[in-house]
Amino acid sequence: MSYIEVRNLTKTFTVRKKKEKGRFFREKASVRALKDVSFDVEKGELVGYIGPNGAGKSTTVKILSGILTPDGGSVNVGGLVPWRDRKEHVRRVGVVFGQRTQLWWDVPIMDSFTLLKEIYRLRETDWKTRLDELVLRLDLEKLLSVPLRQMSLGQRMRAEVCGSLLHRPELLFLDEPTIGLDAVSKLALRDFLKEENRLNKTTVLLTTHDMEDVAALCSRVMVLGHGSKLFDGDLDELLSRYDTVRIITVRYDGDVSLPPLPEGCEVRREGDTLRVLYDPARVRTAELLALLQDAGAIRELTARMQDTDRLIAKMYQEMEL
């Protein structure tokens, strides 16, 4: 039996349309947020749950966390039905929302951590041991007396993660955890989450638009669109379908005499810089690098895949999302 079992999950919302001129009442419409979604997640897995806005990701998370009750289907998380066994279930769950806070805004974060101890009815010794561990790993020692509102975004996110993990949850929901963070803060948070998953076997469901987060943290991804599951499998398999462009950027010293490049290469010139776009399935990278080296004295060369935002936009477009 899997830790999370979701079978034929459906959820429909009734929404009011914008009132039209001349009409006294606004019309109502039904929107199916989830349509027969099924999946399993094993204990200790770290799974990316991605899709465009309105795909049904947040609705799924709210059902799995016990906030919403579905219209049909079944959910079992560690032997519990989230909305039926909510009190017991929430003791096993942690949540981190990148654009929302669970800590108190105007008080020192230590006060919030102390209140969470009482909310989850943690024993003093267990809470203190876990708090000391998380404070050290998340570099919060100098921030415990600082109110949340006085912290930078990166500091606030580290504090939020600490608060969500104090009660040692078996399941952690991450919703856009790195949104707005700078590169250093993103890397630090990703490293911490990977270590937490490895050390404590915490099951993690990550919903995000940031493919860099998914690539750094998740080997398995599920893609949701229009309330239906469109893909469930290995991240490399997903990327191999849509990651069809590589970009080589070259800066030269002096004159450049570029020989004819293989068919399918697109060259963009910007002063002394060349950008070459190509499909690695059609053009061998080693062959292309040799031709670029013969074109002149190279000052700097970088090779990367296409922008991840463009990659995922292409995936959504081909899936007709």
Describe what is shown at a glance.
The chain is an alpha/beta fold and 321 residues long. The protein is built from 10 helices and 13 strands.
Topology:
Elements: E1 4-16, E2 28-41, E3 46-50, H1 57-64, E4 72-77, H2 86-90, E5 93-97, H3 109-119, H4 124-137, H5 153-165, E6 171-175, H6 183-200, E7 203-207, H7 211-217, E8 220-225, E9 228-234, H8 235-242, E10 246-253, E11 266-270, E12 273-278, H9 285-294, E13 297-305, H10 308-318
Parallel strand pairs: 3-7, 3-8, 5-6, 6-7
Antiparallel strand pairs: 1-2, 1-4, 8-9, 10-12, 10-13, 11-12
**What are the low-pLDDT stretches, counting only 5+ consecutive residues below 50?**
none
Helix and strand element order: EEEHEHEHHHEHEHEEHEEEHEH
The helical percent reads: 25-40%
Shape: globular
Strand content: 25-35%
**What structural class is derived from the secondary structure elements?**
alpha/beta
| End-to-end C-alpha gap | 33 Å
Radius of gyration, CA atoms, in whole angstroms: 24 Å
Name the average pLDDT: 89
For the largest sheet, list the strands in their spatial order. Answer: 5-6-7-3-8-9
Q: What key attributes describe this structure?
A:
6-stranded mixed sheet; 10 helices; 321 residues; alpha/beta
